[in-house]
Amino acid sequence: MSAWQQRQHLQQAIARQPDDFVAWVMLADVELEAGDIAAGEQAARRALQLRPNHPEALARLGRVAWMAGAHGDAAKLLGQASALAPQHPGIALWLGHALEDADDAEGASAAYRRAHGLMPAEPYIAAQRLAWQRRLCDWQDVDSLAAQVRAAVASGQGVVEPFAFLSEDASAAEQLACARTRAVAVAASVRPLPPATVRPHGPLRVGFLSNGFGAHPTGLLTVALFEQLRHDPALQLHLFALNRDDGSRIRQRLQTATQLHDVAGLRHADTAARIRAQGIDLLFDLRGWGGGGAPEVLAMRPAPLQLNWLAYPGTSGGPWMDAVIGDAFALPPALEPHYNERALRLPRAFQPSDNTRVLEPAPTRADCGLPVQGVVFCCFNNSYKLNPRSMGRAFAVLQAVPCSVLWLLSGPGQADARLRAAAEAAGLDPARLVFMDKLPHPQYLARYQLADLFLDTHPYNAHTTASDALWAGCPVLTCPGDTFAARVAGSLNHHLGLARLNVADDAAFIATASALGNDPAALAALRAELAQARERSGLFDMGGFAHDLSALVQQLAREHGWLGTAEQTG
């Protein structure tokens, strides 16, 4: 039974029995899954009215608050519900989500651990626990949890979030299986719109759907590209922002360069209807399975052509996506069988960047808590990428390079303390790990000028952070893997002309980093080489990127009946 059929069935049941508590609770779930927060709240409040302080009703109100962005209220309501129903794994799971977003990292971990203890065979809960332990650099039981999650994906027995699965050392075939299973669940929850076709004449109306249109990695990567594309007479750019206006300079630039439609908080069906009403010919999904995305909107097929690009480095697994855009390095032909979409490739690195950024003067080492002397290795990737393998080889580099330090982005909860404990267990002085608090983008970017070499992670590479490092003049050492997510930093190096920083294995990674760390002249020469490569390679040429992306879009549209603009056909 589809979601809209469930809604109709429940509404009919309530019409017959207005005091049916269970029906109101189930209706709240259906409305919230459809993205209708107001209707979900109405149903949840009616349930609570029928049974005051019932944990199921309180939990639905907690979900309402969470979806509305009131994370503190959500955590309070779900905490009350969980206290009333301590043996309820679903409520413990939702409490974990709310505590995550309320910045109670350790509390979220405890909630996920409790949910998993109550339902240890459920893959979705195991995957949530695993993903959050990775964020906290809590590696206890991660191998057994990872094995459970991968086994569930292989058997198709459980739904696992594909974005979190990218952090597992899984093959592209496993990633496809994971995404397909998740896509089946999404498809069952929506009612597709009637088919649409590409308009044969006039400029192409190109849409982009994301929750990152602001001071967010997606906004930072795309804003300069959109500023170039706006001058292309063959394209009309429409951004559909799932996130509210954050007041940032990036958001202002995006609004100036495009037609920006605020769809934050809308029901999935209403967002799809807005996209269809704008007559969008091609719609880019710039979030995919990442948090805050809207795969349900894409599953409704609001545009005749839908493309997966940039923000989610893997297959959507959904039949509603027609193509994925990559490049020859990040998405080689060998990966194509593991993609649901047709593979399209740009003749350059698939990832754009803001080439208008100006580097602020570098702070002093002392200002950043760094030693006055010694090599500074860095890795400003998110904490969930800092797995035992990646940290183990970084520790080996520190052991081989006396007086060096590893500069990391401070993680949530007790993540920093756990990493220092891991360093000590590896025989290192934990003080050789230095942590940087999250900073405004210009200040963060300036700090790369103090770093000698970026040590990448595996299997989930540096993506935006690699681009940031290279733009700021810090070389990136990486070990490309066999999936898209494991090949992004390698793609940037390849297109920059620094393929020698793409090494074959962990042994080569440690040897290369150690050799550079013990040779100040070689490090200085590498930095100078990067500065020259940045100017000549075209990696940061957004005018050229705009030309190539426009050509790809136009070619795809022509294959589906577009005849060009009046100027092109005249």
UniProtKB/TrEMBL annotation:
<feature type="domain" description="O-GlcNAc transferase C-terminal">
    <location>
        <begin position="199"/>
        <end position="359"/>
    </location>
</feature>
<keyword id="KW-0328">Glycosyltransferase</keyword>
<protein>
    <recommendedName>
        <fullName>protein O-GlcNAc transferase</fullName>
        <ecNumber>2.4.1.255</ecNumber>
    </recommendedName>
</protein>
<dbReference type="Pfam" id="PF13844">
    <property type="entry name" value="Glyco_transf_41"/>
</dbReference>
<feature type="domain" description="O-GlcNAc transferase C-terminal">
    <location>
        <begin position="364"/>
        <end position="549"/>
    </location>
</feature>
<dbReference type="InterPro" id="IPR029489">
    <property type="entry name" value="OGT/SEC/SPY_C"/>
</dbReference>
<dbReference type="InterPro" id="IPR019734">
    <property type="entry name" value="TPR_rpt"/>
</dbReference>
<dbReference type="Pfam" id="PF13432">
    <property type="entry name" value="TPR_16"/>
</dbReference>
<keyword id="KW-0802">TPR repeat</keyword>
<comment type="similarity">
    <text>Belongs to the glycosyltransferase 41 family. O-GlcNAc transferase subfamily.</text>
</comment>
<keyword id="KW-0808">Transferase</keyword>
<comment type="pathway">
    <text>Protein modification; protein glycosylation.</text>
</comment>
<dbReference type="GO" id="GO:0097363">
    <property type="term" value="F:protein O-acetylglucosaminyltransferase activity"/>
</dbReference>
<dbReference type="InterPro" id="IPR011990">
    <property type="entry name" value="TPR-like_helical_dom_sf"/>
</dbReference>
<keyword id="KW-0677">Repeat</keyword>
